[in-house]
Amino acid sequence: MCPAAALYIVPTPIGNLGDISQRALDTLQQVDVIACEDTRHTAKLLSHYQITTSTWALHDHNEQYKAEQLVTRLLSGQSVALVSDAGTPLISDPGYHLVNQCREAGIQVIPLPGPCAAITALSAAGLATDRFAFEGFLPAKEKARVDKITHLMEEPRTLVFYESPRRLLDSVAALVRVLGEARQLVIARELTKTFETIHSLPAGDMLTWLKEDSNRCRGEIVLMVAGYKPDSEVVLCAEIVRTLTLLRSELPLKKAAALTAEIHGAKKNELYKYGLENGL
Ligand code: SAM
User: pTM (2 decimals)?
Assistant: First the structure.
């Protein structure tokens, strides 16, 4: 049974309803009230599991005010579960003000582990996961987006973004422009759902691949970017290697590397080093 006067942070499925834990279901069944982002959305999940607990709307636009009311209920001895539409509450979702106010009021906050698109995507991406930086959504406006990527250009940790299908192409194009064609990207789409795909390519090739078929931009998306690596660890995309090899057949390596860098927006010294290491 749930102890009284606690706020439970309850993750819910990001697609596959089977991903909810038994503990999450028990908690949703036993608390006095469920605070949720969209009561109609959560109603579908609750009805699927025949849970009849009453719900209470807590979303971005009313959170500060509604959080105060929930804190009052918690202080009077009630227990509350917080859910969002999908995944882990507070991860690019509402809940920060409520948790913050609860902790300030000395109310126990109990987190349950469960689905989160960023962690699910990372676990299968094949990128380094010993350290990573979750960056939420990239800005919608082009200049702000490019500024943000520029700021992260030499970040050595794997970068994880949430992305909207409408903006995916623009974001990948901006990544190519700022980070170069060679930086490895992974796109995880529709995780846990019927059309789940996880695709890994250097940025330049990824942009081409996305443009080939608009279906590749559809659905819910996690976009991951390999962290910045010192020169010798860079893996160049096939297109860049082709250009470099072709130019090298006519020119000294230094000149071929400089021209290839100019054509593809890559780094001259990385290409030169690649040429030396690969006997071009
Ligand atoms: N709190 C959620 C979590 O723990 O993952 C994230 C909420 S955020 C508002 C929604 C974004 O998460 C989507 O736009 C998408 O970028 C990502 N996302 C959610 N479900 C996903 C899925 N099944 N596959 C890929 N990305 C997903």
Answer: 0.84
